[in-house]
Amino acid sequence: MAPSGGRPVFFLGGLTAGGNLAGARHLAKHQPELHRRFGADRPFALVLRIVEPAAYGTDLTELVADVTDVAFQPEVPTTATAGAEPPDRRGSPPTGYVMET
User: Which residue from 18, 68, 69, 74 has the least number of CB within 10 angstroms?
Assistant: First the structure.
């Protein structure tokens, strides 16, 4: 969901700076499709792969997996966390999470 300012927040978790750039390019290129698929208020998490980086640099990516369901599952209390203070949620989940493989 968008923070109180109304603008979406994206977290890009690449293994390298090139992975971050590829994730940003993927979001920019596929924004209309992602908006249709997830809407403006639904968080999502994707795993991307850079296709032949030696030939295409960070310009060509492919979707490896949509891990939205797993990434945004409610935390299940375990014996280690039962009775513990809830985590600080001020840094709410990002609207989009893209990770390079």
Answer: 74
Rounded Cα gap, residues 33 and 44, in angstroms: 13
94 pLDDT higher than 70: no
Question: Within a 13 Å sphere around the CA of 11, how many CA atoms are in the beta-carbon half?
Answer: 13
Residue 37: both structure tokens together: 């698929």
Give me the phi and psi of 81, to 5 degrees please: -105, -10
The better pLDDT of the pair 72, 5 is held by: 72
Instruction: Classify 57 in phi/psi space as left (phi over 0), alpha (psi -120 to 50) or beta.
Output: left
More confident position, 69 or 83: 69
What values do phi and psi take at 32, rounded to 5? -60, -40
